[in-house]
Each structure stands twice: as structure tokens, then as C-alpha cells.
Amino acid sequence: MSEILEEDEITSDIPEKKKPKKELSRKKKIIKISLLVVGILAGFFVVGTAAVNCFMVLVEGRHIKELDAWKEDAREGIDCIMVLGCSVNSDQTPSRMLKDRLDAAIELYHASPQKILVSGDHAGQYYNEVVVMKDYLIQAGIPSDQIFVDHYGVSTYDSVYRAYHVFGIRRITIVTQKYHMYRALYLANAMGMDADGYIAKYVRYTDQFSRDLREVFARDKDFMTAIFKPKVDSPMDPISLEESGDITNER
After folding, report:
1. Could you give the CA distance from residue 197 to residue 200 in angstroms, rounded to a whole number?
2. What is the pLDDT of residues 120-137, one digit of tens each?
3. DSSP letters along 170-232, please?
């Protein structure tokens, strides 16, 4: 009897010792493979993001113009200057960033008068970027009928898409800050426009590092958006720049 028990003990000990080792080995392999896959995907993401950003900056950087070069182009004829919107203050004045964009557009207009399209977010009764933008330009002496308003420019892509499809613009000068300019130009040229850019004066704005970081990933997103060109969710009735800009004052 004791011999049988001893044999049972021996045979029962074997799987108990081997089983945990096999499970541990299997788990280690799964973890190693998972980490390898995650590492490869992360590597592709980092390389892809860097490639897209470098490509966009290099390709579109040549479309950014200084004032004298822009005046030469303007003599040949452009459809309009488009100012891209951003936040406004609670007292219905432009934020510092938006003011700098508008001041750059004013500088261009005085150098060579052109139609101006202000495109921004008119989210509701109490938030309206574009009326603040147009009022600021009027106060600078630009005639109201020369300023068109796009109330549905809720993103850079929406502004560019509507400039092409709603306002019929084919040759355009975009005004924004440098960090934002490359993506805006890329979208406009991908849409089919002949787009140049004029940069608002350089200022290191509050939270600029976070804006720069977000822009890196926004370029990735809009690189793909420019390929598929999805239709935007906003009114699409055509508006002619040959008419008075005042017809666009109301949504």
C-alpha cells in the first residue's frame, strides 16, 4: 500500500512542477510578442507622423510669400484674401492671435485691394467669430461690401472646402500664423486652388507649445482628409464674389 502511495505521490508531483513553468513561459512569449507588435506600430506612427509633417512643411513652405512678392502676384489677379478665424474675447473683440491675422490682411489690402473672406465659427447667438472679424476690418477702413463672411468655418478643412465649393475661389491668399499655415495651404492646394500664404507677425502666444503639438497631429489627420475630401455638413448654395459682401452678413 505504501509503495502505491509513493508512486502516486511521485506521478502527481511531475505535472505540478512542469505545468507552472510551461504557463510562465507561454505568458512571457505572449508579452514579448505583444510588446514587439506595439513597438513596431508605435515606430510606424512616429515615422509616419514625422514624414507627413516634413513633407507638408517642405512642399507648402515655397507658397508662403513676403509682401513685395505677394504684390507682384496680386497684380496678376487673385480671387480673394481669406482670413482663418480663431477665438474671440468675451467683450466681442478679437483675441491677440486673431487680431494679428486681421492686421496682416489689412496690410495686404492696403498694398493691393482685394476681396476678403473671413471664415470662422458662428456657433450660435452668443459666439460669432466672423462678425467680430468683419467689424474689425471695417474699422480699419475696408469697405463692408468688399468683405465676405463664411459663418461655417468651424475647422480649417471646412473653411477651405467652402471657399472652393461655395464661394468658387480658385486663386487665394490665406492669412494665418506660420505654425498653422502649412496645413491650410496643403488643404487648399489639394482641394484644387492655387493657394499662397501670408503670415501674421510672429508672436509667442500663450500655450503656444500645446498648439504646436496639436498641429503636428492635425497635419496627419488633414493629410488623410485631403485624400478623401469628405463633404462638409453646412449650407452649400453658391455665393459669387462679384456681388456685395454684405449679402453674407447673415447666416
Report:
1. 10
2. 999 888 899 999 999 999
3. -EEEEEE-HHHHHHHHHHHHHHT-EEEEEEPPP---TTHHHHHHHHHHHHHHHHHHHHH-PPP
Q: What is the DSSP letter of 85?
A: P
SS3 127: strand
Per-residue model confidence as pLDDT tens digits over 218-247:
999 999 999 999 999 999 999 999 999 999
Calculated CA dihedral for residues 199, 204, 206, 209, nearest 10 degrees = 90
C-beta separation of 119 from 234 below 8 A: no
CB 173 within 8 Å of CB 197 = yes
Please state at what angle helix 156-165 crosses helix 208-228, rounded to 10 degrees: 40
What is the rounded distance in angstroms from the CA atom of residue 157 to the CA atom of residue 8? 75
CA dihedral 122, 158, 119, 176 (to 10 degrees): 130
CA distances in angstroms from 33 to 23, 41, 45, 168, listed in the order given: 15, 12, 18, 53
Instruction: Give the percent of the chain with pLDDT over 70.
Output: 92
Maximum separation of any 2 CA atoms in the chain, in Å? 111
- Number of H helices and E strands in the chain, helices first, is 7, 5
CA distances (Å), 49 to each of 188, 230, 240, in order? Answer: 20, 22, 38
pLDDT tens track for 56-94: 999 999 999 999 999 998 999 999 999 999 999 999 999
List of residues 6+ apart from 151 with CB closer than 8 A: 120, 122, 128, 130, 248, 251
